[in-house]
């Protein structure tokens, strides 16, 4: 059998005891049946009410029905309290009137507290409690000509009115607060909706946007090669301009797409033990050219055996951004220091510079998207204000944090904190993810030497004519024989052609390039997938099938590196 809801029994007996004591006082002033009847009436109504609301099935009733039962209980109790005007009224006895008045006022206050959101009913309940005895006391005072009694009653009734008025004020305030909260909730829902639409919009356009950027990158290599010997300097200037614009477009697109993936929650950190010394050494090397150009010296204070729990690609992206900024904001002759410190159970990687620093008021906002300090003209040379926003979110995904400390005029110190891990016995294979060249900094257009590849023919699967044409021109420029098909079915028909297959991931008729890649590999081919998708699923699927994956836009350099890596894999088998 279901249990009855537990009652506050102690409170129940406490109330009954006080009522009994009250009744005993009045027994001496009135005929015994009157206080006794009052006591029984009070106990009966309260017990009946308590029994109704603690029944096991009470909680299963509809909210409206439950509310109505509560109201009935209150009406019964207030009517019982109001009956005191007859049953506990001692004519001509001030002390008894004062006691009765106090009891009635307390009851009225309790009812007002209970019914604060329902002022009309509260007013009726308070009237039920106070009016009968008030009227009686006024009547008696007038009849016996004793004005003290009507004054006492008038004061009691006035207090009753005040209770209702205060209740109303309080109820109004509550209603206002509730309306404000509802408005805030609606606004935040609308904001969330806008943000979701924004993410969806970027996710939707990202694929289409990547195609032409990807194609421009591929067309650039043959163009640069063809015009390398051109005499006219304006041609070289134009080519340089196109290179820089492509690079800027590629950077911005990659950063916006990263943000889209972060917003959509599709990006996850693949944490593993990472050797800080190795990462920092390679980054310092990578930034040495730009540092030298700016006349800045990079000093790395890092010891071996400092390992963190991190996603190596994300860690490199964060530190690369911090180094970029530190070099960018330093002046000729200054130093940039990369230091690693142990704090609690974390390694704190600090990138310090002696540049202009960041005003205190702006230190929190630099981690927001598109925020740049002192670049109101939005000069693209200074970046887009996205680097730190992405870096902080990457740090969060890895379970770490990114903070800034800076005194304007005295440089800036960016600290990335990541959980430290013991030095592993054998270093895990970092290429396990099957991702190649995620770093936007890799995609530099330059006159690359024609790659020397250990194969001569490529089966190329791509349905976008613009991208296909650019890729064919590039591959043929490298002396490769290319057979181009548009669909997965055509690719399988032509599967005997080529030692290597390059497949777009999204193919016509809903076919998956990852699946096709797996099938082509089974025919003995080496496979590279190229994807414009922003989700983590594609990367995970490619990694699961152990296929190399390049993210669009892909530069000639990136592609050549990936093809040469295939060569090495073949050689090492
Ligand atoms: P950006 O690509 O514009 O550098 P970031 O998100 O990396 O974007 O940085 C945001 C802003 O933070 C910068 O525009 C700059 O005002 C400020 N900032 C970042 N690093 C430094 C630094 N080392 N010294 C001074 N200001 C910095």
**Please, how many helices?**
16
Secondary-structure element sequence? HHHHHHHHEHEEHEEHEEEEHEHEHEHEH
Major sheet: size, sense and barrel closure?
7 strands, mixed
Give helix % range.
55-70%
State the total count of DSSP E strands: 13
Which percent band covers the strand fraction?
5-15%
Bound molecules: adenosine-5'-diphosphate
> What is Rg?
40 Å
* Quaternary assembly: single chain
Q: pLDDT average, as an integer?
A: 83
What coarse outline follows from CA principal-axis ratios?
Answer: elongated
Poorly predicted tracts of residues: 1-7, 429-447
Query: How far apart are the first and last residues' alpha carbons, in Å?
Result: 73 Å
Sheet/helix structural class: alpha/beta
Explained architecture:
The chain has 573 residues and is α/β, with parallel strands linked by helices. It contains 16 helices and 13 strands. The protein has helices at residues 9-27, 33-53, 63-82, 84-87, 94-114, 119-144, 148-227, 233-264, 276-294, 312-328, 387-397, 465-477, 488-493, 513-522, 536-544, 556-572; strands at residues 272-275, 297-301, 307-310, 335-343, 346-353, 401-406, 412-421, 435-436, 457-461, 481-485, 500-504, 526-531, 548-551. The strands form 2 sheets. Strands 1, 2, 3, 4, 5, 6 and 7 form a 7-stranded mixed β-sheet that branches. Strands 8-13-12-11-9-10 form a 6-stranded parallel β-sheet, with helices on both faces. Strand 9, helix 12 and strand 10 (481-485) form a beta-alpha-beta unit. It is elongated, with a radius of gyration of 40 Å. The protein starts with 8 loop residues before the first helix and ends with a helix. Residues 1-7 and 429-447 have low confidence and may be disordered. Bound molecules: adenosine-5'-diphosphate.
């Amino acid at each position: 059998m279901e249990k009855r809801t537990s009652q506050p029994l102690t409170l129940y007996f406490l109330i009954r005891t006080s009522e009994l004591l009250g009744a005993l006082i009045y027994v001496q002033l009135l005929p015994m049946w009157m206080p006794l009847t009052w006591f029984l009436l009070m106990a009966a109504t309260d017990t009946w009410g308590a029994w109704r609301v603690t029944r096991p099935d009470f909680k299963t009733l509809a909210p409206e029905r439950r509310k109505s039962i509560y109201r009935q209980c209150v009406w019964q109790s207030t009517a019982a309290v109001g009956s005191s005007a007859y049953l506990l009224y001692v004519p001509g006895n001030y002390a008894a009137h004062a006691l009765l008045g106090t009891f009635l006022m307390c009851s009225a206050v309790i009812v007002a507290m209970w019914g604060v959101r329902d002022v009309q009913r509260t007013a009726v309940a308070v009237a039920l409690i106070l009016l009968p005895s008030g009227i009686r006391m006024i009547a008696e005072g007038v009849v016996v000509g004793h004005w003290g009694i009507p004054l006492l009653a008038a004061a009691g009734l006035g207090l009753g009115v005040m209770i209702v008025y205060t209740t109303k004020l309080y109820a109004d305030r509550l209603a206002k607060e509730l309306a404000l909260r509802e408005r805030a909730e609606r606004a935040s829902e609308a904001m969330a909706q806008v943000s979701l639409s924004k993410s969806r919009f970027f996710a939707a356009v990202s694929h289409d946007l990547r195609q032409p950027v990807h194609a421009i990158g591929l067309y650039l290599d043959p163009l640069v090669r063809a015009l390398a010997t051109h005499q006219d300097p304006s041609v070289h200037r134009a080519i340089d301009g196109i290179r820089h614009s492509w690079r800027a477009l590629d950077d911005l697109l990659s950063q916006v797409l990263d943000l889209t993936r972060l917003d959509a929650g599709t990006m996850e950190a693949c944490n593993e033990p990472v050797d800080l010394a190795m990462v920092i050494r390679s980054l310092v090397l990578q930034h040495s050219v730009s540092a030298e150009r700016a006349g800045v010296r990079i000093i790395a204070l890092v010891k071996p055996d400092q390992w963190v729990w991190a996603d190596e690609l994300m860690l490199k992206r964060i530190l690369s951004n911090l180094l970029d900024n530190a070099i960018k904001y330093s002046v000729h002759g200054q130093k940039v220091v990369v230091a690693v410190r142990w704090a609690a159970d974390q390694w704190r990687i600090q990138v310090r510079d002696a540049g202009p620093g960041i005003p205190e008021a702006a230190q929190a906002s630099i981690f927001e998207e598109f925020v740049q300090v002192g670049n109101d003209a939005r000069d693209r040379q200074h970046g887009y204000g996205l680097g730190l926003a992405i870096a902080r979110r990457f740090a969060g995904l890895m379970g770490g944090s990114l903070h800034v400390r800076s005194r304007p005029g005295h440089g800036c110190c960016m600290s990335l904190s990541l959980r430290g891990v013991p030095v592993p016995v054998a270093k895990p294979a970092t290429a396990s993810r099957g991702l190649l060249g995620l770093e936007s900094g890799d995609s530099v257009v330059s006159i690359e030497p024609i790659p020397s590849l250990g194969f001569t023919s490529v089966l190329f699967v791509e349905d976008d004519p613009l991208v296909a044409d650019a890729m064919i021109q590039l591959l043929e420029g490298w002396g490769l024989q290319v057979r181009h098909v548009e669909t997965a079915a055509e690719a399988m028909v032509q599967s005997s052609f080529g030692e290597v297959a390059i497949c777009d991931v999204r193919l016509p008729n809903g076919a998956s390039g990852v699946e096709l890649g797996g099938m082509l590999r089974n025919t003995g081919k080496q496979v590279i997938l190229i994807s414009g998708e922003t989700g983590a699923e594609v990367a995970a699927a490619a990694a699961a099938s152990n296929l190399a994956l390049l993210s669009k836009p892909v530069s000639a350099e990136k592609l050549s590196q990936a093809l040469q890596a295939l060569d090495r894999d073949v050689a090492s088998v």
